């Protein structure tokens, strides 16, 4: 049986001699709903904020000090690994092969001290409510008329870079998907961040704001991409995702 592990910031827990006690359980993300009391109305009114909340994931660990090192050195290495450059980063762990998570290590106690004194600790992560298919954030170069298939059960929010000039219309399954005016050399559209830019310059004025949705999604199933206009290259990072 393979040893359980998690990998964060490009390093694996087993490198440090951390043995994980559980890896499989993740709480399902909750819908963000606010309950409001309104005068003259019985009960509560539910206000759906149209978002999922993040979830917590804990890894209870015991430290088995690698040969040739002492507990003080290893505990310090682990603390520096998890606490340096705190921010969202990729997390993968055994039990969820084929997917990766966006995670933030948010320890509220001293990892180094608990490992030194007890030889064990609990490492806590905050996860975004989606998991991403491994390879789904690679760049695909698409030809006119090519289909991209989303095998997940949720539409994804792609990152698109179009190299070309002038007025360009992109269709998905013969429906207008992205309509651009006066493209100059190239343009990037990021549905996840709802941004349009060239280098550091916003390019919202080049989008047709009447499309719904405004930012293109890759829907479940087949997405046949076609275009008219002077497109020299069409690149897309699909970001295939599923709810945790």
Overall description:
- 9% of the residues lie in helices and 49% in strands.
- It is built from 2 helices and 17 strands.
- It has helices at residues 71-83, 111-118; strands spanning 6-8, 11-12, 18-20, 31-36, 45-52, 55-63, 89-93, 99-105, 120-133, 140-142, 147-150, 159-172, 175-190, 195-198, 201-202, 221-237, 241-243.
- The strands form 3 sheets. Strands 1, 2, 3, 6, 7, 8, 9 and 17 form an 8-stranded antiparallel beta sheet that branches. Strands 10, 11, 12, 13, 14, 15 and 16 form a 7-stranded antiparallel beta sheet that branches.
- A hairpin with a 4-residue loop joins β13 (175-190) and β14 (195-198).
- α1 (71-83) runs antiparallel to α2.
- The model has no long low-confidence stretch (mean pLDDT 89).
Brief characterization of the structure:
9% of the residues lie in helices and 49% in strands. With 244 residues, the chain is mainly beta. Strands 1, 2, 3, 6, 7, 8, 9 and 17 form an 8-stranded antiparallel sheet that branches. Strands 10, 11, 12, 13, 14, 15 and 16 form a 7-stranded antiparallel sheet that branches.
Task: Using the CA coordinates, give the radius of gyration.
Answer: 23 Å
- SSE order: EEEEEEHEEHEEEEEEEEE
What's the helical proportion of residues? under 10%
Strand content: over 45%
Report how far apart the termini are. Answer: 25 Å
Give the helix/strand layout.
Elements: E1 6-8, E2 11-12, E3 18-20, E4 31-36, E5 45-52, E6 55-63, H1 71-83, E7 89-93, E8 99-105, H2 111-118, E9 120-133, E10 140-142, E11 147-150, E12 159-172, E13 175-190, E14 195-198, E15 201-202, E16 221-237, E17 241-243
Antiparallel strand pairs: 1-2, 1-7, 3-6, 4-5, 6-9, 7-8, 8-9, 9-17, 10-16, 11-16, 12-13, 12-16, 13-14, 14-15
């Amino acid at each position: 049986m393979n040893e359980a592990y998690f990998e964060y910031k490009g390093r694996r827990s087993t490198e440090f001699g951390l043995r994980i006690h559980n890896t499989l359980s993740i709480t399902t993300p909750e819908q963000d709903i606010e309950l409001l009391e309104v005068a003259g109305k019985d009960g509560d009114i539910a206000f759906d904020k149209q978002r999922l909340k993040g979830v917590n994931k804990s890894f209870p660990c015991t430290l088995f000090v690698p040969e040739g090192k002492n507990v003080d050195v290893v505990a310090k290495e682990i603390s520096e690994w998890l606490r340096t450059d705190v921010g969202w980063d990729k997390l993968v762990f055994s039990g969820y092969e084929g997917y990766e998570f966006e995670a933030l290590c948010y320890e509220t106690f001293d990892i180094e001290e608990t490992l030194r004194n007890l030889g064990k600790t609990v490492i806590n992560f905050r996860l975004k409510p989606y998991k991403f298919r491994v390879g789904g954030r690679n760049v695909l170069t698409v030809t006119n008329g090519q289909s991209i298939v989303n095998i997940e059960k949720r539409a994804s929010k792609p990152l698109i870079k179009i190299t070309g000039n002038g007025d360009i219309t992109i269709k998905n399954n013969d429906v207008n998907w992205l309509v651009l005016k006066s493209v100059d050399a190239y343009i990037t559209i990021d549905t996840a961040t709802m941004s349009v830019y060239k280098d550091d310059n916003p390019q919202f004025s080049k989008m047709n704001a009447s499309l719904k949705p405004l930012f293109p999604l890759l829907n479940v199933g087949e997405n046949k991409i076609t275009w008219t206009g002077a497109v020299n290259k069409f690149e897309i990072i699909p970001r295939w995702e599923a709810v945790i």
